[in-house]
Predict the structure.
Amino acid sequence: MAKVKISDVAREAGVSLGTVSNALNHPEKLRPETLKLINETINRLGYLPNQSARQLAGGATKSFGLVLPRLDHGFSLQIASGAHNEARKHGYDLLIANADNDDILEDHYLRYFMGTQMSGVMVQPMASPDWHPAMAKMPVPIVYLDIHCSEPGYYVAADNEAQGRIIAELAIARGAHHIVVVGRAAFMQLTLRVLGIHKALALHPDIKIEVIDAGEWNTAADGYGIGAQIAERPADERPDFVVGLTDVLASGVVSALVDKGISVPGQVRVAGCDGNPLAWSGSVPLTTVAPPGYEIGRKGVQLLMEQIENKAPAKIKHIRVGSAARTVTAVAAEDINRQELVRPFLLERASTQASSQTDATAINLGAYL
Amino acid sequence: MAKVKISDVAREAGVSLGTVSNALNHPEKLRPETLKLINETINRLGYLPNQSARQLAGGATKSFGLVLPRLDHGFSLQIASGAHNEARKHGYDLLIANADNDDILEDHYLRYFMGTQMSGVMVQPMASPDWHPAMAKMPVPIVYLDIHCSEPGYYVAADNEAQGRIIAELAIARGAHHIVVVGRAAFMQLTLRVLGIHKALALHPDIKIEVIDAGEWNTAADGYGIGAQIAERPADERPDFVVGLTDVLASGVVSALVDKGISVPGQVRVAGCDGNPLAWSGSVPLTTVAPPGYEIGRKGVQLLMEQIENKAPAKIKHIRVGSAARTVTAVAAEDINRQELVRPFLLERASTQASSQTDATAINLGAYL
DNA sequence: GCTTGTACTTGAAACGCATCAAAGGGGCCG
DNA sequence: CGGCCCCTTTGATGCGTTTCAAGTACAAGC
């Protein structure tokens, strides 16, 4: 069970150490027979290159690290997916670490990746990287995802404020008079969504707006609780439009309202934010604004490649990606016909078509709107 | 931007190379003043240990690798989550690679991890590891997840056959006469589910069973297509019970049936498999059998630890984890009351309680059953 | 003052590989 | 037959650590 090393292969194949190394890294330099002989020996012995030694001797490897705050969040997965595909396209590997909502862990994995001679590192940070001036000085390209700050560096973010604005405009278009925003703006992204909503509504002082904190974690249960509370209000204090700051929240709200006998969208309309698959994969689609996670991951890798190829020191570089991946033509409330609703398969088709980056902002039109 | 190395820190701090190394790895060996001096120097210079060199010099690091076939599959994420938590508990890092449904990539990352001096590697393989005898010979502990085969090695799997059996028994309990199973048994896991269904129904020759292939990827769109086709059958050829081999499929089926004016669960009952969050986070819960992904990840790491600590060569070791994470007392169809239905917040509570491993097999009871 | 012990610190060796200057081995031309 | 060039292979060197045997300094005990 002792590890087979390159010198074992060399001895066994009757060639020198450097030749085996060449077989691995510059096969075109070898005579075909030699190459074949070496490859056979490698397979016979079960030799596996020691990546650590490779990296140490040869500098950076072709791989990127990605630190995500959670894995069970659809948006993060879209980022991972986009980053993965783009990385593979350039011949790079992508390794993912889960920071598990813990900023100590986030920092830990970040340093780990930087120390592993990764060619580049990406993070979807929990807090502003302003707190991390140290990272910017590291000799490894780094790109921050889904965040926006004023430190020098590379950033790719969805336009969260625009998402709020879109939802608000939708509410206005639907003739809303009283809007309730559900959720705790625990993260900058959510704060920006709320900001966008407020800005859009500033032009409509006649529309009443209320923001209800849903509890620390913005769970479906929190949404359900708020939904139940809304349902029990007297009809004239009840909103006619509810915005979940996340789709999970919105989904909880819908459940509660329906349970309590409130008609959705008859009496109250509900929409969410996040583009969470549960919104459109569920058996009843929920309207949601979809931030282009896939696109963000892709752009992130592109920025990494840019830094690697130019070897230029990082300047401030912000990229803002439009807020829609999947689009459906907006229709008036009266036109909504359940048969014509956005269906998973339609969405899938739309998402394929729109997978090239777009700045268009649009929404899925679900059954609760 | 030149990389700071340990010798720079040593020179700057006026101590020797080995002392700095000790500061990092055996701080208890140093005089507190020395330690403090070195730590300050490290921070001032922004020194970051080169992980490659560390691993090369010091042998394996405390980290595990996990190769998953996809990231957007809830079950894989549960595995990742369980593995992550268990790994952290033992002080190990967990790095995740996405094989993107590509067996070449799967193999690639597997080798990569093994070559990186990982302390152990886990895979949720796409095909049977029988094809990978080479892996078993590697000097790195490996555990296969969510699969079952006869080669020597360590395996942790959910009891997929039991899942099929449970669903079938549920159908029987509901008085089903004609069952349609929707989905392509493209993976061993799905095959086993079908097998379980058939076995359970073998005792009930009066129940008609039909298996309908849903297309290559088992998407919601595929489910929708089959659902639509079912809806258009004459009433006497229509099943009274549909099983989606995955929740995504089942969800598509429900959408189609409802769209076509078939009452669910009035005319047709529908259930899924996977314990996919979309089943219970959606605004209308879907009945599903939940394989304990979290538990599988946890057990996987435990098996890794076992191998590391005993340093014993891998013998055959199968662990089968029961098929329920979240349980709800089953009630008769007539008792279903939408107000009392399983709600996300109930589920969340239940899942917390049941997070300790259990072999009990049970299901969520959704609105479509 | 000498020994023994304790508490730290030192620096050389080794980890497995990529690199690259240099050597080797033809073939071709003159 | 000698000289030249090109293609292939060689092996010493160094990558940044950890480790560990050996060293230093100082204190306590006799």
Observations:
- Residues 3, 5-7, 17-18, 21-22, 24-25, 49-50, 52-59 of chain A lie near DNA strand C (CB under 10 Å from a C1').
